[in-house]
Amino acid sequence: MSHAAVERTLGKLLTDEAFRDRFFADPAVASFTAGLVLSTAELDALSRLPREALSQLSRRLDDRIRRLRLDQDEGLLPEGGLGAPGPSATPERPVNGAARQGPKRGVG
User: Fold this and answer.
1) Does residue 92 register a pLDDT over 70?
2) What is the mean pLDDT of the chain?
């Protein structure tokens, strides 16, 4: 048993809607495919979590920490669709948190 794998699974269940759908359809296959090694007892315990409670909590998370889903008709969209609020990148506040750096200059 790996507590780290349980924590990673819980994180994916909360932040990744597609994984959550696959997990509740077939926990063992979804976990294995995602590279999460869970014991039978861990799979059983996680699959007993109320799916709707996970979905409700997921909807309350900031979009910046939720995984985008692929909508086959529209392309890559935030989980709430095109109108969903999301982070806005600016030179002062890039989305990934990295500071914007100017052009590289040669050492002279």
Assistant:
1) no
2) 77
